């Protein structure tokens, strides 16, 4: 059994980020939000493109107005310069131009006096207060110099970056493709959401949870459905999943029960199992495995995969009839060029969510091409309730962060913290973490929480 921090280090070390040449696609800027930039962006434009005014007012020569606080200067207005127009005149001593925010500073002028510090009389303006030299001039290239790096590769594109790229006239962008994450559930007891339940049966909720989590992470979920506890079928599905995805997530079948086949099948498929169990609760029986890296071809064609919306849970047909079905890189008509990372998540619904948030999400982030910020974010907050653990494993308790007078407080979810209890996970936006050996946190005591990005 490995510690949680060792498990995180092992997993992140196994992740190979997408390739910045091979694993990219071009997208329109309007739909590029939340994507990861694959190449650095440089602009031939300076920002600002030219000296311009930060205020509505008058463009003046500083030397004409420097004593205006004692003795208001009176200047002749030679031109009106709205934003969007090129000035025609050069400001001479004793002259000014009426100017508006964002408009080009005319030649000869070096300072803008805001309108409120002036008095207008026909085509003359009285400067009532001396400005500072160059005041309210936004100088060409003072925000960004043409030819230098505007945005680095490996950043997530959010509204500020999208605005920068629009201003730099980049209507299309090279971004990393979405990581492909194959998901399936194992268990004879599992039914789809629309099937009637017989005694002993439950709905496969894990697949829905994982599909949502994967999609929220920016990756593409590929839903392979429910797989019976049948080692032959399970082996075929695992081999298929490994051949089509960057990451495979199965849930269930990783403990010590007679019908828990996942680890044995991984071994028979020559996978290297790096983790079998983690010192955490929930989430102890977690399997992490990789497969031998196949031969790297020069330019592998990507497989054509149907986009798998949640509603088509049963729509991906896994070929299970061919005797030759294997992890062979060429089996599906395309060449696999990197080893996918296999997570055998424990079947209990709370364990699935917690292990996803704690281990899978950082792995998807690293894989996605983003260059930093993969690790989970922990905050120190105050606990509202008493929190308890048996101290034997690092314990994750689910609940909600509330902002009380500007300070975050963790409220543990009411009801059972059993990893089989899915119901009170609704509205969870944080997990309190009690390290090994810590059995009690008093009300109002500080506790570490993992803040979840779905809040
Ligand atoms: N003798 C031991 N038994 C168990 C141990 C142990 O150490 N020794 N560990 C327990 C812990 S902790 C966990 S977590 C579970 C992990 O079990 P598996 O990964 O083998 O999962 P299953 O046996 O298939 O199912 C467990 C549980 O979860 C329900 N389940 C499974 N899949 C789904 C799904 N897709 N949607 C909703 N619910 C699902 C399943 O019905 C079972 O109730 O093992 C403990 N046992
Ligand atoms: O590790 Mo299990 O997830 O507690 O039930
Ligand atoms: Mg089991």
From TrEMBL:
It catalyses: adenylyl-molybdopterin + molybdate = Mo-molybdopterin + AMP + H(+). The keyword Hydrolase does not apply. The lineage of its organism: Bacteria, Bacillati, Cyanobacteriota, Cyanophyceae, Nostocales. Pfam families: MoCF_biosynth, MoeA_C, MoeA_N. Signal peptide: none annotated. Belongs to the MoeA family. Keywords: Magnesium, Metal-binding, Molybdenum, Molybdenum cofactor biosynthesis, Transferase. PANTHER family: GEPHYRIN (PTHR10192:SF5), MOLYBDOPTERIN BIOSYNTHESIS PROTEIN (PTHR10192). Its cofactor is Mg(2+). One of its GO terms (molecular function) is molybdopterin molybdotransferase activity. One of its GO terms (biological process) is Mo-molybdopterin cofactor biosynthetic process. This is Molybdopterin molybdenumtransferase. One of its GO terms (cellular component) is cytosol.
């Amino acid at each position: 059994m490995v510690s949680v921090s060792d498990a995180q280090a092992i997993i992140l070390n196994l992740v190979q980020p997408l390739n910045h040449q091979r694993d990219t696609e071009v997208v329109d800027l309007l739909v590029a939000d939340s994507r990861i930039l694959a190449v650095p962006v440089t602009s031939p434009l300076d920002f600002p493109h030219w000296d311009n005014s930060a205020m509505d007012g008058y463009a003046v020569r500083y030397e004409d107005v420097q004593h205006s606080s004692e003795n208001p200067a009176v200047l002749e207005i030679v031109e009106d310069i709205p934003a969007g127009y090129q000035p025609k005149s050069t400001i001479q001593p004793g002259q000014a131009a009426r100017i508006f925010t964002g408009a080009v500073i005319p030649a000869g002028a070096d300072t803008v006096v805001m309108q409120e510090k002036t008095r207008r009389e026909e085509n003359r303006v009285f400067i009532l207060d001396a400005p500072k030299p160059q005041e309210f001039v936004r100088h060409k290239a003072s925000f960004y110099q043409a030819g230098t790096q505007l945005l680095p590769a490996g950043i997530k594109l959010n509204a500020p970056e999208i605005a920068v790229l629009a201003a730099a006239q980049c209507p299309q962008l090279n971004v990393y493709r979405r990581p492909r994450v194959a998901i399936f559930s194992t268990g004879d007891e599992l039914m789809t959401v629309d099937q009637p339940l017989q005694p002993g049966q439950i709905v496969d909720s894990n697949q829905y949870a994982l599909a949502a989590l994967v999609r929220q992470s920016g990756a593409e979920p590929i839903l392979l459905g429910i797989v019976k506890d049948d080692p032959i079928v399970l082996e075929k599905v695992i081999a298929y999943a490994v051949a089509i995805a960057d990451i495979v997530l199965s849930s269930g079948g990783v403990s010590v029960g007679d019908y828990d086949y996942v680890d044995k099948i991984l071994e028979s498929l020559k996978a290297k199992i790096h983790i079998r169990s983690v010192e955490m609760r929930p989430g102890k029986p977690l399997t992490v495995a990789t497969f031998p890296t196949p031969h790297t071809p020069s330019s592998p064609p990507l497989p054509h995969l149907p986009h798998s919306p949640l509603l088509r849970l049963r729509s991906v047909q896994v070929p299970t009839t061919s005797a030759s079905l294997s992890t062979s890189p060429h089996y599906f008509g395309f060449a696999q060029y990197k080893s996918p990372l296999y997570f055998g998540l424990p079947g209990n619904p709370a364990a699935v969510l917690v292990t996803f948030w704690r281990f899978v999400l950082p792995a998807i982030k690293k894989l996605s091409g983003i260059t930093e910020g993969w690790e989970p974010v922990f905050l120190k907050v105050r606990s509202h309730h008493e929190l308890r653990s048996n101290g034997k494993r690092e314990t994750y308790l689910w609940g909600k962060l509330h902002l009380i007078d500007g300070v975050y407080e963790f409220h543990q979810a009411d009801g059972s913290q059993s990893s089989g209890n899915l119901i009170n996970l609704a509205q969870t936006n944080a997990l309190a973490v009690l390290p090994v050996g810590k059995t009690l946190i008093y009300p109002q005591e500080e506790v570490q929480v993992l803040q979840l990005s779905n809040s």
